[in-house]
């Protein structure tokens, strides 16, 4: 298994990063939050998890080991595959996930696209004894999430080659869509649409 990848960022897309390792470009599926930390041409080290299927080998890249281990753990719940697990770590931080599962917070879990009421209850039931307790005492409240989403979307756009000025304007244009629980991926796509119209 490939535990981590270190190399130059060769390319970024909306959902993945290509990291050049020894002359080979490895495509890593990443969350918008992880992609926002990467810059083309810069060196990066990403913990990775490899998902092996009959017809594919997929590498998922993460911002840190905590996100990676949370991604791998939530897949042990029935009905949670790699795509849903990635959506979970994209919408909720590892600590927010641990907090939601420990406190039977179905509402927080259903913020993840693809997780319904029954799915959230099953995840809580199956993972409650294994997920552990939050490592930091505070949750990322909506107040701190607002500037965070702006920063992530702006960095994502700059990483994809737009100027800081254009990125800031695009972030302003999508701000009304953010609401209380911003979906970084949706906002990034929306910002890209507004830039392509301009």
UniProtKB/TrEMBL annotation:
It is found in: Cytoplasm. Residues 72-91, 107-126 form the Helix-hairpin-helix DNA-binding motif class domain. GO terms for biological process: DNA recombination; DNA repair. Its main location: cytoplasm. It comes from the Bacteria. GO terms for molecular function: ATP binding; four-way junction DNA binding; four-way junction helicase activity. It holds the Pfam family RuvA_N. GO terms for cellular component: cytoplasm; Holliday junction helicase complex; Holliday junction resolvase complex. Residues 145-198 are annotated as: Domain III. CDD domains: UBA_RuvA_C. The keyword Hydrolase applies. SUPFAM superfamilies: DNA helicase RuvA subunit, C-terminal domain (SSF46929), Nucleic acid-binding proteins (SSF50249), RuvA domain 2-like (SSF47781). Keywords: ATP-binding, Cytoplasm, DNA damage, DNA recombination, DNA repair, DNA-binding, Helicase, Hydrolase, Nucleotide-binding. The keyword Nucleotide-binding applies. Has three domains with a flexible linker between the domains II and III and assumes an 'L' shape. Domain III is highly mobile and contacts RuvB. Belongs to the RuvA family. The RuvA-RuvB-RuvC complex processes Holliday junction (HJ) DNA during genetic recombination and DNA repair, while the RuvA-RuvB complex plays an important role in the rescue of blocked DNA replication forks via replication fork reversal (RFR). RuvA specifically binds to HJ cruciform DNA, conferring on it an open structure. The RuvB hexamer acts as an ATP-dependent pump, pulling dsDNA into and through the RuvAB complex. HJ branch migration allows RuvC to scan DNA until it finds its consensus sequence, where it cleaves and resolves the cruciform DNA. HAMAP family: DNA_HJ_migration_RuvA. Homotetramer. Forms an RuvA(8)-RuvB(12)-Holliday junction (HJ) complex. HJ DNA is sandwiched between 2 RuvA tetramers; dsDNA enters through RuvA and exits via RuvB. An RuvB hexamer assembles on each DNA strand where it exits the tetramer. Each RuvB hexamer is contacted by two RuvA subunits (via domain III) on 2 adjacent RuvB subunits; this complex drives branch migration. In the full resolvosome a probable DNA-RuvA(4)-RuvB(12)-RuvC(2) complex forms which resolves the HJ. This is Holliday junction branch migration complex subunit RuvA.
């Amino acid at each position: 298994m490939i535990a981590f990848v270190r190399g130059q960022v060769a390319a970024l897309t909306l959902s993945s990063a290509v990291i050049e390792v020894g002359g080979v470009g490895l495509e890593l599926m990443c969350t918008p939050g992880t992609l926002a930390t990467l810059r083309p041409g810069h060196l990066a080290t990403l913990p990775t998890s490899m998902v092996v299927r009959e017809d594919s080998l997929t590498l998922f890249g993460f911002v840190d080991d905590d996100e990676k281990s949370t991604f791998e753990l939530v897949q042990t719940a029935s009905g949670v595959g790699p795509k849903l697990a990635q959506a979970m770590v994209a919408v909720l931080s590892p600590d927010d996930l641990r907090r939601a599962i420990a406190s039977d917070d179905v509402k927080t879990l259903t913020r993840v696209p693809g997780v319904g009421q029954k799915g959230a209850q099953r995840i809580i039931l199956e993972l409650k004894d294994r997920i552990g307790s939050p490592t930091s005492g505070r949750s990322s409240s909506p107040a701190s999430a607002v500037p965070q989403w702006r920063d992530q979307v702006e960095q994502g756009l700059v990483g994809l080659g737009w100027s800081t000025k254009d990125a800031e304007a695009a972030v302003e244009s999508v701000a009304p869509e953010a609401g209380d629980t911003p979906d970084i991926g949706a906002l990034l796509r929306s910002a890209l649409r507004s830039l392509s119209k301009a």
